[in-house]
Amino acid sequence: xxxxxxxxxxxxxxxxxxxMCGRRGFDYLDTLPKSGVYSGRFRSxxxxxxxxxxxxxxDTALFFLDDQTLRLQEIPCxxxxxxxxxxxxxxxDGLVTDYYLENDSVASRLPYKxxxxxxxxxxxxxxGQVREKGSYAKNARTGIWEYYYENGQKAKTVRIxxxxxxxxxxxxxxxxxxxxxxxxxxxxxxxxGTPANPTELRMSGPVKDGVPDGEWDIYDRFLSHPLxxxxxxxxxxxxxxxxxxxxxxxxxxxxxSAVESVHxxxxxxxxxxxxxxxxxxxxxxxDGATLKxxxxxxxxxxxxxxxxxxxxxxxWILLDIHYDMAGQLSAKSVRxxxxxxxxxxxxxxxxxxxxxxGRFTLNGKSTPYERFYVVLVEANSVVIPEEIxxxxxxxLIFGHN
Length: 401
What we know:
Layout: E1 53-57, E2 60-65, E3 80-85, E4 94-100, E5 106-113, E6 116-117, E7 119-124, E8 130-137, E9 140-148, E10 154-161, E11 164-171, E12 177-180, E13 183-194, E14 197-208, E15 211-212, E16 214-219, E17 228-233, E18 236-244, E19 247-251, H1 276-279, E20 284-286, H2 294-305, E21 314-323, E22 329-336, H3 341-352, E23 360-362, E24 365-366, E25 369-378, E26 381-383, H4 385-398
Helix pairs in contact: 2-3
């Protein structure tokens, strides 16, 4: 049985979280770097696949990530680059380090065990100051988490249990005590929602024994007045009122006040090729077939494996395909976890037989493009992680299998 442990936990909103869409769409495109050049401290031993992925060694990858560390990102739109040891199942396995592309300083140190966050995690600002630190156990935050301002002043301490997050203390950037021993007032910015779809809001309200108590105000960065006002009694949600351009609306089915943010890295997808930077802000059109030939790739590899010549192969395969402006195959490459020249040559020949997606246009002009696919093979079984994640997302969005 092929082992395929995918670190992806997008799920419907739960009490205390928000289903609202994030506001990260195209509102930050003007701040993107103008060049796609990587000049970091690590040299790759391979090409840059889709400008999103490369390899430092046989089992160490160089990923480029967006500012939410949620997906791979093309270098011009990336905020971080990640150095990650990979096991044969393409799981991050060992100490992973993220770096800021802007100045090569460490952004985070994260321990992974077979694709799961497990152990002490530390995050940093660009100036080297600790931003937050705390522990994960099997991809869930647990215990004491400490947060800091960029000047080194502690911002808050939160205790995370199976029952939720409890505020221990809270401070202003200048060191004024807002809450201590779980009592006082919370005032800070919190990302709510799901790891796959966070929304950043400012929260302000009294706390008692670490939980909301009394009236809490929630502010959106686009509004001067509270977006929502919620009322609590010793952590028990009573009622809320939301305000928008269409008026006010009362609710009591769920609340949005929180002292702890969701962490997008808990939903990190490092399997799929992402073309956001290529198409951002442009009208696009793809003639012909889809860029998701999962069935054809899966069938093609299974046909190769039927010969039995590669029954001992166990590990990941990276397939990379380039298309020219006419939508025709212009270049291809295959990278294997286990070196096998004969298997590699058969895979290259299989790529020639894949259906052509067609001509890709941006703003009415044809453009070349590239796609890569990670495939897992063991005991003649084949799994394409990106396909599993894609179907899972479609099920969440459209409610079908």
